[in-house]
Model the fold of this input.
Amino acid sequence: MKEKRTLMDIVWRVVLYAWALTILFPLVWVIYESLKSNPEFFQDIWALPSEFRWQNYSKAWNQYGFGQSLLNTLYYVGGSLVLGLFFTTINAYALTRMTFKGRKLIWGLIMLSLFLPGINALVPQYVIMRELDLTNSLTGLILLSSLGESVFYLMLLGGFMSSLPVELEESATMDGATLFQKFWRVIVPLSTPGIVTVGVFKFLGFYNNFLAPFIYLSDPKKYPIAVQMYSANKQMEFTADWVTLFAGVTIAMVPSIIIYILFQRLLMEGATMGAVKG
Amino acid sequence: MSDSTAVKTASKLGLDKANTQKWIFLFIAIVPPFGGYLLFTLFPNILSVYYAMLNWDGFTDAKFVGLSNFITAFQDKYVWRALTHNLIFMITVPFFVIIISLLLAYLITNKTYKENKFLKVLFFFPNVLSTVVVALLWAFIYDGSYGLLNGLLKFIGIDIGNFYWLGNESTALASIIPAWVWGGVGLYAIIFANAMLAIPKSLYEAAILEGAGHMTRLFKITMPLVTPIIRVSALFLVVGTMKGFEIILIMTNGGPFGSTDVIGLYMFNLAFGVEYRNYGYASAVGMILFVILVTAKLLIDKFVPNKGYEY
Done:
């Protein structure tokens, strides 16, 4: 059935396109400005580049130490992802599918986190990290990021795991599988979709994390990309090297764009789930 | 007889073994994540109450000063200024996010434009960008000499010269709001759109048969049915905006002359800023924010009508 198009439809479409433009326009603008020279940019912020200056990208890469901060990012994001994903999965399994003493108490304490805004804990958390000698260290940051509880992830994975039939586990036990084998060979493969969703959210969370690395890392050589871009912008205030900064911002957006293209469906579904379950 | 004993011992041994295994498994599954939660989340929260009563720069010996930090905070005009800014953000950001998301969600789900699928994907995109990238993009927009906004204004014939939107006390605060809204709309548009899609088609069909127009359907069916989700979203947004300060830290760091300072950022700079450090006072300000947030949460829960509809 075809809907009848009216004058209002034009208005509605304009509204939709207007919002789309607020997203596309700045992004496209930054990308094409990143291919100009600085004088070209200063002269006219609208004109297209006369020639594509890809060297801006290599300059951004070198000047902002992208090589080093990419390695830092890989180490921090990779380490937190592997460690965090393992513990979140096994934790969700234990808390949703196993019975043991103290389980209720643990759940209760975890639920408490929904009431804690966390901001008042920043200072004591910093002092604790300092006492443990974990400040100014990417490894310390990995421990901080990957050891902890999140109601959102527990709900997401727990919901997934509790929908798996108990018979599966029982028959595995009959076959003589140990608890670890059962978890690793039965539960993990069957929960893969849930684990992937959690993984994508965690990846974005770690890659985009600004505040924790900013607080805990004092040595600029250890900065991951997000903090590096912040300090690049600070430098720019003195150098007025705009096009290189544009190139840098574009580079920093590449991982987000790739993840989004690969997992957009999953991200949109997961985000809704988080909101509905609170 | 000896057989049955053997079986019993064997099963007991097996049980013991299974039990040991269970405890090892539980140890690995619970202790690191839950321990991390206790150490890095719960304990600091409790500790912050004590810290709030100290006079401590973080390095020299701490001095216990009781409630005097709180008295100082209530007399601190910077605290009140920051709270005023918080109030402005807390009202405007959630309001615009919800209005824009609702409109976009409604158009995406109820109109059959062929580009809607693409738009839905595009609208969500800002939500995967880091706060740093969002803040820098908007800083480029607001730049006085080479910013997009001034360029656009010039293009339509309004030349205001090199006006620095973020560098001016009278415009900086208002300029942060669109950036914050822009970064949040996508998520809520998707949430509302999915909620609208979940409404059974039969309801609309029945309404059309009864002669209900577009507007009637919108306000009698769609809106009431998504109200619970709007409510939860509003709660999230209000609390999130109240405690959020990253985007402000990156765009203006509270400046110029404190005109964009918010309470979270004020606390952050008291603790980690370059000028001076006062962990005790920062914690007291943090506690005030904590009380405000928990109160806001409870108030919203209590007073915003929570009418659920069944279909």
